[in-house]
From TrEMBL:
It comes from Iphiclides podalirius (scarce swallowtail). Transmembrane segments: none annotated. Residues 1-22 form the signal peptide. This is AB hydrolase-1 domain-containing protein. Residues 157-266 form the AB hydrolase-1 domain. InterPro entries: AB_hydrolase_1, AB_hydrolase_fold. Keywords: Lipid degradation, Lipid metabolism, Signal.
Length: 484
């Protein structure tokens, strides 16, 4: 840039200088020569000054033009962005911020899609999630500590334990006013809902992968021996060691209760009472078609395990995919309803059609093949409530006997109330009465007054308040009066 400027100045100067005068002689015209130099110097200075001035003027003109154009461009750009900002704000307000009645945004069936805590809060109750570790399994507890109308947490504590293939969702699926968890909270109880290992809300382990054999090597026996005691300890540590807890279980939840009291008899003193809804202990009188499948259970389990599947009906297995035909999103009401009635007992009058998709959304919450095989063994064992049968050789190694030991029900000292129904294909009258004879003389029984009441009506019956809940509330009043 500097060199170009010098050349430009010299070129301008060259065109501005006058022609050189001719010298007549070296000495006699000396004055003329010096005069010539002075004139030439003056002409060069004038030319240079004139050229510099023109250069500065050009520079100023260019700078002025550039500044003017820059301001113009800046003004136009700022104006454009202001205009776009206004349009964007208007568009955003229209699409995002202004309330709309967009039906596509709404959940079609919130109780079938939301997790248990979200569903509880959605209905206006407070929900807490607590975490308990048991043998490395990370167990989640869902708690409704009080009713919607008070913040006071009662000393009267209830633990609800779900059945097979289920989760804590069982206790809220029928909605406020009917579902037992809400009914108990409204009545002033501190309600805790546990989730067994391997189920939807208790899927993790501190050390093992959830698709490993080690993770799924458990049955309800292990839940009874380790998990429920750990949960009871957690609650009493939180609320005080003198806290009395009433245990209410459904189906497998009752199996766990009686196995725990036999294996860990000290928990007869921790609990205040045990309520067994559709008790499953003895299974010789089972009338469900699944009874015919019991002899095949061990063989099927063995074949599944050869292919690396230790979870019963995982979602990605062949059988798991077949069960998706009854998924809530693609429900064929008649087919699914018929299948459920065939297994559990038919009772069209107590089935709320809106609850069926909610129930199906929670089915297959996670269990092990060992759990299924253990139940199959109970069916085949008829009058024996026994521990897992590993076969003669392994039984000798583990138990010291060829036959697995029975759970000693004589160790059950807890006040028990058995709830049963005539149309329950999984918990028969003869098996319930046999269980009653094995329990303390203080044991009570209650037959549901509806002769068609089935195994799942405990969870979803339309008339649950009059058929079941009122009896439970009345019995609980007596239980806590005795404690007080």
């Amino acid at each position: 840039m500097y060199t170009s400027s010098i050349l430009l100045i010299l070129a301008i100067a060259a065109t501005s200088f006058p022609p050189i005068r001719t010298l007549n002689g070296p000495f006699d015209r000396t004055n003329s020569f010096f005069g010539f130099l002075e004139q030439t110097s003056s002409d060069m200075e004038g030319a240079f000054t004139s050229s510099y001035g023109r250069a500065v003027k050009i520079k100023d003109t260019i700078n002025s033009y550039l500044e003017e154009q820059q301001n113009k461009i800046s003004t136009e750009v700022n104006g454009y962005f202001e205009k776009m900002k206004g349009r964007g704000r208007q568009l955003a307000d229209t699409l995002s911020y202004v309330p709309t009645e967009d039906a596509a945004s709404e959940l079609e069936n919130p109780d079938a899609e939301l997790a248990v805590p979200a569903r509880i809060v959605r209905h206006g109750y407070r929900c807490e999630t607590h975490t308990v570790a048991s043998n490395g399994y990370i167990l989640s507890l869902h708690r409704i500590p009080h009713s919607k109308t008070t913040k006071e947490i009662s000393y009267k504590t209830i633990l609800l334990q779900h059945g097979l293939f289920a989760s804590s969702a069982d206790w809220i699926m029928n909605g406020p006013g009917k579902a037992l968890a809400y009914v108990l909270a409204d009545a002033g109880y501190d309600v805790w809902m546990s989730n067994v290992r391997g189920s939807k809300y208790s899927k993790e382990h501190a050390n093992w992968r959830t698709n490993s054999k080690a993770y799924w090597n458990f049955s309800w026996h292990d839940v009874a021996q380790h998990d429920i005691p750990a949960i009871l300890d957690y609650i009493t540590d939180l609320k005080g060691r003198d806290t009395k807890i009433t245990y209410i279980g459904h189906s497998m939840g009752t199996t766990i209760l009686f196995a725990m009291l036999a294996l860990r008899p000290e928990y007869n003193q921790v609990l205040s009472a045990g309520y067994a809804l559709a008790p499953v202990v003895f299974m010789s009188g089972i009338r469900s078609p699944i009874k015919s499948l019991a002899p095949l259970a061990s063989n099927v389990a063995h074949m599944e395990m050869l292919y690396g599947s230790h979870e019963f009906l995982p979602k990605d297995s062949l059988l798991g995919k077949l069960t998706s035909s009854c998924h809530a999103d693609r429900i064929d009401g008649k087919v699914c309803k018929t299948a459920i009635f065939q297994m559990c007992g038919e009772n069209e009058g107590q089935l709320n059609e809106t609850v069926l998709p909610v129930f199906l959304a929670g089915v297959g919450a996670g269990t092990s093949w060992k759990t299924i095989v253990h139940f199959a063994q109970l069916i085949l064992a008829r009058d024996r409530f026994q521990q897992f049968d590993y076969g003669v050789w392994n039984n000798m190694r583990i138990y010291g006997d060829a036959t697995p030991p029975e759970y000693d029900l004589a160790k059950v000292k807890l006040p028990i109330k058995l709830f049963w129904s005539q149309n329950d294909l999984l918990s028969s009258e003869e098996d319930v009465l046999r269980l009653e004879r094995m329990l303390p003389s203080t044991t009570e029984t209650y037959r549901i007054p509806d002769p068609k009441f089935n195994h799942l009506d405990y969870l979803w019956a339309t008339d649950a308040p009059t058929l079941l809940n009122n009896e439970i509330l009345s019995s609980l009043d007596k239980t806590f009066e005795r404690i007080d």
